[in-house]
Structures are given as structure tokens and as C-alpha cells.
Amino acid sequence: MAIQDISAVREERKRQVAHGYRVFAALGWGDLGDGHISARDPERTDCFWLLDVDTPFGQASADNLVLVEPDGNVRGGSGRTNLPAYYIHYPILAARPDAVSVAHTHTDYGTPYSASAKPMEPITQEACIFYDDHSVFDDEEVQVQDLDCGERIAAELGRHRGIVLRNHGLLTVGASVKHAVAWFVMMERVAEAHLKARDPQPISHNAALYAKADLTTDEYTESVFDFLVGHHVHAP
After folding, report:
1. pTM of the model as a whole
2. Residue 127: CB partners within 8 Å, gap ≥ 6?
């Protein structure tokens, strides 16, 4: 890939990360700084971009992102990042060369749902996206303070697109920032459905797989992200 192409890919990923943070802010998430969206650098693929920890989600821009190195130090950009983000994102991206982005924050439904430590069932259309495609990290270490915990999360996540972190919240990964963010928003809706539905009737195996195939295409997933940005993001 030519240098100018790498630069263009990097800037587009950073732009999408900033938009993702702004979407999270518009949905009322991350007001305590509790969350992070990453983007793997296209050149230094063992490094990733995150929002500077001192910048509110609603003020995120490509200029506020920092490049985090494998040792946790900040190299590119200006500012600093929080160590829990490094402890979670680095092991996942290292274990998943297919992934470009990881998304996680604390939400109104995902966090309380995670206290059940139960996998999600295909009880809604969006839930089919995660049918046989998410796992549960059934571990009491909710305060992630080292790479060992992140590595255990990565191992439990496996090849799935999402994971329920017990007593902590939701996390998604994607082959692009658009995928990770869109799937996170939809996983939160699935958690909401589980908490609100009194006696849900699960969708059958074949019907769930049929819906999943349609709902996880690149075209559909990217359109979800674009709709979210169009509805919620009103500044660069």
C-alpha cells in the first residue's frame, strides 16, 4: 500500500472513531469517561488509536486521538490514555488480526444485563446478529488492571463479534470501526429487550441464522453506523 493510501486509511479510521465516540455521547453513554473505541493503525498494526482520556466523548475529533503502542505508551497524537483501555484493547487486537476496532462503554441496559452472566437469546431481530456469535466472560475482575485480565477476555471472546463482561458491560469487535460501533449499539438494544421482555419467545435456530446472514452484511452494518452518525453527529 502506498504511503498516501496508508495515510488516507488512517485518517478515515480516526474520523470514524471520533464519530463513534460522539454517537456514544449522544446516546448518553461515557459521561464518566467510562468507555473506549479503538482503531488499529494501518501501518503500525500492533498500535491503535483511542480518544485522549481528558476529552469528553461529545467533543471527540480526529485531532484528540492518541496512538497507543504495544507497551501502553502514547506515541502519536497529543494527550494520554487510560490504562484499562490499553489492558482490554491491546490483547484483543493482538489475538484478532481480522479485527480493526473494539468498542466498549457502560450503558443503561448492557451493564445491568451483564450482572446476570448469561448469554443472550435470539428474542429480537437484532439479537440474531449475536446468535452463536457472542460469549460471556464469567469473571469477577471488573476492574481491569493488567494485561492478564485483557488476555483472558480475548481468549473468552474467541472469534465472536461480541462478549458480555460479567458485572461490567458489553464489548464488540469488528473488521472496521463502523462494524464495532454499529454492533455495540445493537447489542445494547438486545440487552434492553432481555431486561424488558417478561416471557420472550426465542426465534428458532434456522430463522435466527437466516436473519443473522442478512443483518451482518457489510452494506447493512455500515448503513447502521452512517444512520447513527447522521442522526446524532452535528459537528466535525
Report:
1. 0.95
2. 120, 121, 190, 193, 203, 208
